[in-house]
Amino acid sequence: MTLTYDMARACVAAAMAKAFEIGIAATIVVLDGGGHVKSLARMDGAWLGSIDVAMKKAKTSVLFEMETQAIWEFSKPEAQAHGLESTNGGLVTFAGGIPLKSSGGTLLGALGVSGGQVAQDLAIAEAGVAACNF
Prior knowledge:
It is built from 4 helices and 4 strands, in the order H-E-E-H-H-E-E-H.
């Protein structure tokens, strides 16, 4: 199974709906399993800086096949991989990046969100992922 444009667009649309619901202007991106853009939306009013952050959240999630906030546990000071966030052109280790996996657990890509507070980005990302039934 591969991640299609229509699947990626559905994830972005669901995430955007959540962002509208909670009043956040966000950038939402879906990357494929190789880390390449499949779909991206920068909502009206979203900061320009949110584009790069959303992309890096999705990239981080693709590269390590886990939610971005989980990577913090490995890379925080005193952890075994402290400094990991400085690799791969810069990673993001706070919430808002979630891998997209098939029902069988195969990595298809990742969704990244930036624009609100960390908890808001996570809620928007979770809504996008929940709408994607792979």
